[in-house]
Amino acid sequence: MKTAVIYYxxxxxxxxxxxxxxxxxxxxxxxxxxxxxxxxxxxxxxxxCCGLMFSHYNTPLxxxxxxxxxxxxxxxxxxxxxxxxxxxxxxxxxxxxxxxxKIALFVCHAGGKGDALDKLKAMLPKxxxxxxxxxxxxxxxxxxxxxxxIADWVKKISGV
Length: 160
What we know:
This protein is α/β, with parallel strands linked by helices and 160 residues long. It has a single domain (3-158), classed as 3-Layer(aba) Sandwich (Rossmann fold). It is built from six helices and six strands.
């Protein structure tokens, strides 16, 4: 089964999960980047993220290459911002034209996923959602528990 992992990662958490999935499924990995992505800290990071979430336009993205018809399974990962998937992933989904695909979703957060997974599912109608998962700060811990959680979820969605 040809698999793509598409994700956005500001702090490395979704990157960590995507790389673990890549190892398990030999998946293609496509990282989405906002066109303006300066490293921000503390309150500046919070206000930048919230500004992107609450503005009602698509976040400009850096160029990427993705053809949904080339994949049997598409795994989409996003950080949680204000109980929602990060704005760059929302933009990606709105532009990608993904329909009729097997989809799996994951989010990374610091302890509050809110309804981010439900919002992701709502943005992907006419697709089969195989599974969803949330991971709490995986890049910070990089523990065997997190790695096992990812591996178990990959088995569930892929049958491998």
